[in-house]
Design a protein that fits this description.
The chain has one domain. It starts with a helix and ends with a helix. It is about 25% helix and about 25% strand. By secondary structure, it is of the alpha+beta class.
């Protein structure tokens, strides 16, 4: 009898969790392949690394993407958002090959299915501020941070607000504006640029 009661209690707890668990469809298209939402390599040709795709190319399966979410809010900076993140999904590769086409092999597009996966309690039903971050994995970099530290192409979408719905309501699609991946200059590069600007200003004043 005790075993039967325990089984029923566990089943009811599971149902309650399922009904309170929010989820979204993590993808960047809501129908046929659409180049207007595809992820590309930055147009800054100097930031395009050999093997990571030419400037303007659509990214392929050697790039990965992940969804992050934080309590709904207006975040003043990327750092503020990251500090508030309460959950993240698994990594998903893009379709096709880098340099391919969204309308032929699906380059620049991805579909991670339902997030969170596996279903847990990190996304209770409600509205969140979300962001997608993408990076060149090259078969080596399993996370955005590793890719960023290595200086390879990384990038992220604009923040967007989306409701995570619980069963039986259908999940919402995370359709967001297209974005690009690229490299970020080393801090020393910014310092040199600032020094150069200061020298130019001094030179102009003397003239």
């Amino acid at each position: 009898m005790k075993k039967a009661l325990l089984t029923i209690s566990l089943a009811l707890a599971s149902v309650a969790t399922m009904f309170g668990q929010g989820r979204v469809f993590f993808n960047n298209f809501s129908g046929p392949a659409d180049a207007t939402v595809a992820v590309t390599v930055t147009n800054n040709a100097a930031a395009a690394h050999a093997g990571e795709g030419a400037a303007g190319a659509f990214v392929g399966s050697d790039y990965s993407i992940m969804l992050l979410w934080a309590p709904q809010g207006s975040y003043a900076s990327e750092a503020a958002f990251l500090a508030a993140v309460v959950g993240s999904g698994g990594t998903t590769p893009f379709f096709g090959t880098t340099g391919g086409s969204p309308t032929t092999d699906g380059a620049g597009l991805f579909d991670a299915g339902t997030v969170p996966n596996p279903v847990g309690t990190s996304m209770p039903a409600g509205t969140y501020t979300m962001q997608a971050e993408a990076w060149y994995n090259g078969g080596t970099f399993s996370t955005f941070n590793l890719a960023f530290a290595a200086g390879v192409n990384t990038g992220y979408s604009q923040m967007f607000n989306l409701a995570a719905t619980a069963f039986p309501t259908s999940p919402n699609n995370t359709v967001f504006p297209a974005f690009a991946v690229g490299t970020v200059p080393e801090p020393g590069t910014f310092a040199l640029a600032g020094l150069g600007a200061a020298v130019l200003m001094m030179f102009r004043r003397r003239k």
